[in-house]
Amino acid sequence: MIMNIHAIKAIYKFELHRFGRTMLTSLFVPAITTSLYFIVFGSAIGSRMREVDGVPYGAFIVPGLIMLSMFTESISNASFGIYMPKFTGTIYELHSAPVSPLETVIAYVGAAATKSVIIGLMILATAYLFVWVPIAHPLAMLGFMVLIAVSFCLFGFILGIWAQSFEQLSVIPMLVVTPMTFLGGAFYSVHMLPEPWKTITLFNPVVYLISGFRWTFFGKGDVAMDVSLAFVAAMLVVCFGVIVWMFRTGYRLKK
Amino acid sequence: MASILSVRGISKTYAGGHQALGTIDLDVAEGEIFALLGPNGAGKTTLISIICGIVNASSGTVTVDGEDIIKGYRHTRSTIGLVPQEISTDMFERVIDTVALSRGLFGKPRDDAHIEKVLRELSLWDKRFAKVQELSGGMKRRVMIAKALSHEPKLLFLDEPTAGVDVELRRDMWELVRRLRDGGATIILTTHYIEEAEDMADRVGVISGGKLILVEEKTALMKKLGRKSLHVTLSEPLGAIPAGLSSWSLTLADDGHMLDYQFDAHAEDTGVSALLSRLGELGIGYKDLNTEESSLEDIFVDLVHRPAREAAA
Ligand SMILES: Nc1ncnc2c1ncn2[C@@H]1O[C@H](COP(=O)(O)OP(=O)(O)O)[C@@H](O)[C@H]1O
Ligand SMILES: [Mg+2]
């Protein structure tokens, strides 16, 4: 047995099944939230601010909206996926199974990322009910979505292993990720900010992710695309490194 | 027979400094039923958890089916099935899904026929589409067993399988254990119920305070440590033990109708025949005789308390 493919398949299926049970809420909540954002941002603000960087405001906010939901959904789904077995005690089975850390990560993160991508596409579809959104590089858009989903699911997985209470589980998405997304140009272009905020904002990694994703839609972003990709790659490497370390040392997993 | 499990110099000190296991050495042969017998906190669960990969040992090595549990974990873990002491399972899932997940986790391809067989054997087939949370405690425990058997393990661990379990499940479980053994599986169970070890096991290891005090064939253990009692039912009740019988340690029971004699069954001279002929000489008639072996319980109490007694002496 070089790779325990059966285990990866079993966990993946099991996790998607878990999502399936809550599919209705999982898909409707982002769709409704997106609609609300459109009503508030698109109609209220968009009626005063017609264009940003030559893109109609309503369309301009779509990539940011998708990212906002995908960040939070990825983190919460992946962190829950591994936190729940820890919480209920069923993690004993994972520890006693012939499953390598890599296989565990592929299965859990793969399932959570699948769900995130579905939600991302759902939001995009909802957006079309309100505005026409051009997509300059559809394949790059999809690829970027997958990369973002995987990176944030890896981060969520780490969070789920680290967390020792439900409070800790929700504190990072609420206190760190959502503010960083709002301040990271989800609903505006960084160029619109006055100094020093413009420079300060460039320290926010989320800026690079949203900018990159926006590029795939409109062919331009706040920063160069390769810088964005470098940020995503860095995030993937760091998260994966932390997970390897966690499994090696048994950090908060084994006694 | 070849050993399927070899434990060498395993010790465990938990973070926080509590030493749960001293240095444990143990071999279990393929196809036997081995009982780890010890009071709460003795280290039974810790030892099992180390073998199964749930807890990291502080020192020592474990070999399962010829491979090291760390270097060869793929093989050793797919060889092992574990029914843990605590019931913990995915409450919102259906029985059949959670059992199928276990089979996949342990690297086996989907096999609906085997899952059906396991569920039927555990009387879970009718409940296969029920969510685990809807089941009673006993049924949940059956689900735990089904999960452990889903991948056809060669070595099965049952950690306190009958603690808080109803009579029916207990009986079903022992039937299942015997059937599994007949099918060639090795079973290691922990218990603090003596009767369980006595009824089920081929060999017994007594563990206390993180140390394996002794490992014996159950029958050998009984013989070696077994004391017997001779019960003599008298024709006429005695008021007191006659002076002529003072060289035996006797007690009167049942209002003087019964004379009890405790003896070491393995002594050269048990004193039984001399006692009987002396009774004849004294003209004390008896209607019936029977002997009784002491239970593992007596042996166990004796073993666990012996070090303390010896220290006091
Ligand atoms: N996770 C843990 N951390 C610290 N001490 C533990 C832990 N698990 C068990 N122990 C201690 O180790 C000893 C052995 O426990 P255990 O193996 O569960 O015994 P048994 O299964 O024989 O009842 C006990 O004193 C227990 O309190
Ligand atoms: Mg225990």
Question: Biggest interface in this structure?
Answer: A-B, 26 and 37 residues
- Overall, the morphology of chain A is globular
How many strand units of chain A? 2
From N to C, what is the helix and strand string of chain B? EEEHEEHEHHHEHEHEEHEEEHEH
Query: Based on DSSP secondary structure assignment, what is the total number of beta strands of chain B?
Result: 14
What class, by secondary structure content of chain B?
alpha/beta
Helix-strand string of chain A: HHEEHHHHHHHH
Percent of residues in helices of chain B? 25-40%
Number of structural domains of chain A: 1
Q: Can you list the strand order of the major beta sheet of chain B?
A: 6-7-8-3-9-10
What kind of sheet is the major sheet of chain A?
Answer: 2 strands, antiparallel
Oligomeric state as shown = heterodimer
Distance between the termini of chain A: 27 Å
Helicity of chain A, as a percent range: over 70%
Could you characterize the architecture of this molecule?
The complex is a heterodimer of chains A (255) and B (313). Chain A is mainly α. Chain A has one domain (5-249). Chain A has ten helices and two strands. In chain A, β1 and β2 form a beta hairpin. Chain B is built from ten helices and 14 strands. Chain B has helices spanning 44-52, 73-79, 95-105, 112-121, 137-149, 167-182, 194-200, 218-225, 272-281, 296-312, and strands at residues 3-13, 19-29, 33-37, 59-64, 67-68, 80-83, 155-159, 186-191, 203-208, 211-217, 227-234, 250-253, 258-264, 286-293. In chain B, strands 6-7-8-3-9-10 form a six-stranded mixed beta sheet, sandwiched between helices. The radius of gyration of chain B is 24 Å and the shape is elongated. Chain B starts with a strand and ends with a helix. The model of chain B has no long low-confidence stretch (mean pLDDT 88). The A-B interface holds A 1, 4, 6-7, 9-11, 13-14, 17-18, 21, 88-90, 92-99, 250, 254-255 and B 14-15, 49, 52-56, 73-78, 80, 82, 84, 86, 88-93, 97, 100-110, 147. The site of adenosine-5'-diphosphate has 12 residues of chain B, from α1. Chain B: This is ABC transporter ATP-binding protein. Chain B: Residues 5-234 form the ABC transporter domain. Chain B: InterPro entries: AAA+_ATPase, ABC_transporter-like_ATP-bd, ABC_transporter-like_CS, ABC_transporter_ATP-binding, P-loop_NTPase.
